[in-house]
Amino acid sequence: MNPSTASPLPAVQASNPAEQIARAGRREAGLRVILPLALIALLLVAWEAIVRINQIPHYILPAPTLVLRTLFEQWHSLAPSLWFTVKLTLMALAAAVVGGVLLAMAFALSKWVEIGLFPLAVVMQVTPIVAIAPLILIYVDNTMAALLICAWIVAFFPILSNTVIGLKSADSNLRDLFGLYRASPWQLFRFLLVPSALPYFLGGLKIAGGLALIGAVVAEFTAGSAGRNTGLASRILESMFRTEIPMMFAALLLVSLLGIVIFVAFAALAKLMIGHWHESEMRRES
After folding, report:
1. By the 8 A CB rule, do 88 and 148 touch?
2. Could you tell me where the beta strands, DSSP code E, fall in 191-280?
3. Are 201 and 101 in contact (CB under 8 A)?
4. Are 158 and 207 spatial neighbours (Cβ–Cβ below 8 Å)?
5. Chain segment 143-181, per-residue pLDDT in tens
């Protein structure tokens, strides 16, 4: 057998599986984008057809084309409201992250702190924000601060609960190993507890991002504020009172798109931070 003719075959055979895996990964990534977009496009086409065929008035159900036209024509009014809602949501989420993580650390370090404070956190979570928002708006003079508190209450518990679970999920054998090597509490926290809690924290962050947006919108609905320095919820209320249904749908579209952007951003953050080592975010070859 001639060695010069036999040597290239293993290389070709070895390169084929890797190329197939890469091609399959690109195909899957494309389908993850194409399939949802195709379904949404199909639903929009059906919506448009139903409205046109049945000649439904725009003050009952506007067509998607009318909603998009209204969005572009009224962008000068909707853009400040969108920015107000974004700012309120991100501020509430930042406060929830800081408070939730710090309190979770206190729970993990002291069981008595957890026993004393965790029931209060549960009470805050299970109490409907619609029920307590009017009280907050009465007792807090600043409307912006009241809205921020309402949105923070909704977003706080997922961060706290998931982070506590993550801190407690550290492997007990690894804890014993750190103790065997006389690791300091800071080393234990940094090299064991934080990596253990990070996937849970990022999962809670995805949930809390959407809840912060919901809390901001619900709080503004309850406040019933109007004017220029208000959010998308105020635009929805104004449109409802004036029977401007296309404007209402345009504001609802912006709220939905904002929620999608928040979720996608935190999903990308989770992929970036733990995608190379944690099973929940690693891409499987099969």
Report:
1. yes
2. none
3. yes
4. yes
5. 889 999 999 999 999 999 999 999 988 888 998 999 999
Indicate the DSSP class of residue 16. H
Please state the pTM of the whole predicted model.
Answer: 0.85
Q: What is the pLDDT of residues 180-229, one digit of tens each?
A: 999 888 888 889 999 999 999 999 999 999 999 999 998 888 876 544 56
Q: How far apart are CA 263 and CA 212, in angstroms?
A: 11
Q: Is 257 helix (H, G, I), strand (E, B) or coil?
A: helix
Q: Would you give the end-to-end CA distance of the chain in angstroms? A: 37
Query: Rounded to 5 degrees, what are φ and ψ at 72?
Result: -70, -40
H or E element, residue 221: helix 194-223
The 10 Å CB-count burial string (b at 16+, else e) for 208-231 is bbbbbbbbbbbbbbbbebeeeebb
163 neighbors 101 (Cβ within 8 angstroms): yes
Taking alpha carbons only, the member of 134, 162, 148 closest to residue 95 is 148
Identify the CA nearest to 216 among candidates 264, 262, 159, 268: 262
3-state secondary structure at position 281: coil
What is the C-alpha to C-alpha distance for residues 82 and 142, in angstroms, rounded to an integer?
20
**Kind and range of the H or E element at 79?**
helix 75-109
Q: Which amino acid does the sequence have at 226?
A: A
